[in-house]
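job 3f2a | input accepted
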Amino acid sequence: MSIATAPTPARSSLPGTRSDLVVVGAGIVGLAHAVEAVRRGLSVTIVERDLRPVGASVRNFGHCCVTAQRGELLDLARRSRTGWLDAAAEAGLWAPEAGALVVARSATELAVLEELRDERGTDAVRMRTRDEVADALGRSADGRDDLVGGAVLPADLRVNPREAAPKLAAWLAAQSGVQIAWGTNVVGVESGTVHTSRGPVHGDQILLCVGHDLDRLRPAEAEAHGIQRCRLSMARIVAPAGFRGDAAVLTATSMLRYDGFTAMPSAAALREEVSGHSAELLDIGANVMFTRLPDGTVLVGDSHAYDTTEIPFQDEATNRLLLREAARVLGVDPAGVRVTERWQGVYASSERGPLLVRDLAPGVRAVTVTSGIGMTLSFGLAAATFDGALRTTV
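job 3f2a | predicted structure (394 res):
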C-alpha cells in the first residue's frame, strides 16, 4: 500500500463520539499508542488533520535504531523492537530483522565500535573485517583500501517508512472499536473532550501525539521544552550494482550523533578526526547513512538544521555533499549516482532532552519524541504509557 492510496474512513459518525482513548495525530507515535490500546481491549478514536500520514513518519530511513541508544532510551528501544515485530505480524508490515552495518574507515572509527562491543557484548555488537564489510556493500575486490572494518548491530530493525504508518492505520481501521477521522483539524483539548473542525470527540483518556506541531495546540508547553523543527535533506537513488542488503548502513558521522557511540572513550578523538578531514560534514550536521527499500531503491541522507519554523528550501550543495559521501562508502563514482526523488524531512528536536511527556489536564497527556528516534521508540513509549512506567517531563 502506498501513501497515495492510504484509506480515508468515513467521518459522518465522528461528532459526539466517545471512546476509551482519543489519539490526536496519526504519525507513528500516535499509531503505536492506538495499536497498544487495541491490544489492551480499549476503544480508540484517532484524529488526524491530513488525509494520510505525510509527516516525519514517512520521510525517514525506516531504521529502528536500537543498539545505538543508551540508558532509558535503550530500554524503550528494546521494548519497541518487540512491539514492531508484533505489529508487523498483525498488519503485514515489511520488517526484516536485518540489523545495521556500521562502516569503519579509520582506526579511530573502529576503536569506537570495539569499545561498544566491550560494553555491550559480542552478541550485540558483532565485529566485521574489511572484506566482510566490502562484501555486504557489494564493493569489488579491488576497491576496498579505504575500509578498515566495521560492526553489525543485529538488534536493529528495518521498516519501509513509505508503508509502515499507512498499513498500521489500515489495520487499525479494520479493528472493532476503532475509527480514524482523517482530514480533521483539532482546535482545542480539555479533559474528556477534543474539539475538532468536525465537532467534539470525547474520550476517557486523550493523548496528543503531534510531534513538532505541539506548538500549534499547546505553545506554552512546546516553548517550555524548547521544541524546534529539525529540517533534513533526503534523497532516493537507484541502488548501485551489487548493493542488495536490507541492513541500515551507518558511518562515522552516525557515530557522532547517537548516545551509544558518543559515550565511548574514543568518541572525542573521532569527532576531532572527522573535523580534521571533513569539517563540511559537521557544518551541515550530517548523519551519512542509507537504507534500501524493498523495491531496490536506496534512501540516502541526511543533514540537520534547526529552527522554530522550518524554511521550505533545500541547498543543493548539501545534497551533493551527502550523495558524494554515500557514494564513497558504497565505492562508486558519485557522478554515476542517479537520484529519483528529493524531499525535506522534519521532526521535533530539543536541546533539553529527547522526550516530552507532560500531563496537560486530568486525562490529557502530550507525548512527543524530541529527537530523530520516533520510529525507534514508538512502540516502547506506547507500552510504557499504558503500564504507567513513562516518566513525565518537568
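job 3f2a | The longest helix spans residues 72-91.
job 3f2a | closed
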